[in-house]
Amino acid sequence: MGRLDGRVAIVTGAAQGIGAAFARAMAAEGAKIAIADLDSGAGIVEELKSGGAEAIDVPTDVADEDSCKAMVAQTVEAFGGLDIVVNNAAVFTAVERKAFDEITVEEWDRVLAVNTKGVWLCCKAAAPEMRKRKYGKIISICTGRIFKGAPFFLHYDASKAAVLGITRSLARELGDDNICVNAIAPGSTMSENVLKRTNWMGGGPERTRATRAIKEDETPEDLVGACVYLASADSDFVTGQTIVVDGGSAMW
Question: Which of 156, 224, 230, 247 is catalytic?
Fold first, then answer.
């Protein structure tokens, strides 16, 4: 028996990388999964189905309210309800690292539209379905950078610091509905797109490893335990919290 048997989960940005790892882990625990991504999720859906899971591909732009509403509606139509949302979609590897006064207004707005507004819109779309069940788990992906004062990524760091604030405030608003709202703050994680990065202003993987108590590279699989815990009944009395998973670089 899986820890998420009978649960329905949406994972945004799950066509690849960390989001795909979350989807695999929750499916292995019995959850029915909606892959919500701008990129095609057909590959990961077929992978999950071949392993015996139930999964659907739901093309989604989290920065668009109508798209978020459609994401929830399609998930409910397919699986009969909604229990879990993992807000993983973000603009990250496509963002150029640079000094704060070199960031353009257009870049700033693009990052916050997805990374901050997108989290809010997904929560706004999902909450009514969770309220029907008087149960829900919202898990948003933050970053350990916001606890460290790391330079040269101010738009990204601002967007993710806002996610921490959303997590705390929304936990208060949804507590009476028995909906838990938490966040995971990864360190620099060696997903396939991160491994392609060449501009590491402020230090690359070697420097990051040196800041950790556990001096190893972080992989997407290092994050799935925290995600499954926050999605499961094991965390039914945990809300408004942010779990840093970075090998002990930022001790929160």
Answer: 156
